[in-house]
Amino acid sequence: MEQMTYKDSGVDIDAGNESVRLIKNFVRSTYRPEVLGDIGGFGGLFALKNYDEPILVSGTDGVGTKLKIAFKLNKHDTIGQDAVAMCVNDILVQGAEPLFFLDYLAVGKLNPAQVAEIVRGVANACKESGCALIGGETAEMSGFYPAGEYDIAGFAVGVVEKKSLITPARVKVGDILIGLPSSGLHSNGFSLVRKIVFERMGFTGNEKFSDDKTLGEELLTPTRLYPKVCLPLIRKFGDKIHGLIHITGGGFYDNIPRALPEGLGVTIDADAWTIPKIFKCLQEWGNVPRHEMFRTFNCGIGMILIVDAEIADEFKTFHKIGRVVEGGGVEILGGEFHD
65, 95, 119, 323: which could join 160 in a potential S-S bond, CB 3.0 to 4.6 Å? Predict the structure, then answer.
């Protein structure tokens, strides 16, 4: 009887080892002084220091069906940032500084060069967010994913002093909503995006979209990382920052209420910022209802700060997009979408 090896089943241990070799330097480049040990251990080690009452804040997420566009265009250098951003932006809203990140990458067939491209994006995003990439897992799952396809998810841990934890209890009537621009679609709504762009419109992704981007490149623009923007503001203004909102799945209508106490709502002026071209195109191409646009996409605002009205004028480089009002719900006025 012919002998069989693990490689005969589609799992190549040598390719896995080569992937680790290729990513070692990317991973090490993210290390903070608190990181103990090195890549290759069974667990990542991180020494928590210099906090009086530390609260650890954790978050996990994936990139979702945006990956299908990366497969279609064979472009994998931005996906790693999406995985990091969806996690670190989530823990940021409670005032947490991201400390470390772990990734999980599952592939049908290990391609060390492709893995290195993805993990390089993860590492660069970790460095930009100030957190260390202290561990991860690359799983070769033969027969589970089609050739060239994969899934990636991540897990972030941050820390905030107990006295500085941002909760809905801070928010009050009259607070101002400050909108921070998104980089584009980020990583939400891509099941609808793909249906509109590739099924209804029949585009390939190679069409020219702007002076410097094809349509596919626009769709794959990575999620903006907000820690280096928001953490200095949190430290500067302290308890005058009453809330943060990461506009992800559910858009404005589902995410904003998560940051509000019961009995309060917001009024949004969608004329306060310019809605980027990609969102207008998607609405037109898909004949998407106005309400659905604001419930599915970030429409150009990726993070919202809820601030005390007395400091609202300090945020001149961003957009004042609304205020907190009595009563529940989210009311969005204006905007460039048709009904």
Answer: 95
Q: What's 321's DSSP letter?
A: E
Beta strands in the chain (DSSP E): 35-36, 45-46, 54-62, 97-107, 132-140, 150-161, 176-181, 241-246, 264-269, 301-307, 319-326, 330-333
**Rounded Cα–Cα distance for residues 154 and 122 (Å):** 9
Pairing of strands 319-326, 176-181: antiparallel
pTM above 0.90, yes or no: yes
Per residue in 55-101, pLDDT (tens digit) is 999 999 999 999 999 999 999 999 999 999 999 999 999 999 999 99
Interatomic CA distance for residues 169 and 95, integer angstroms: 14
| Residue in 25, 7, 8 with CA at minimum distance from that of residue 16 | 7
Region of 64 on the Ramachandran plot (φ > 0 left; ψ -120 to 50 alpha; else beta): left
Tell me how far apart the terminal alpha carbons of the chain are, to the nearest angstrom.
69
Other C-beta atoms closer than 10 Å to the C-beta of 36 total 12
**Widest distance between CA atoms in the chain:** 80
Q: Is 87 exposed, middle or buried (0-12, 13-18, 19+ CB in 10 A)?
A: buried
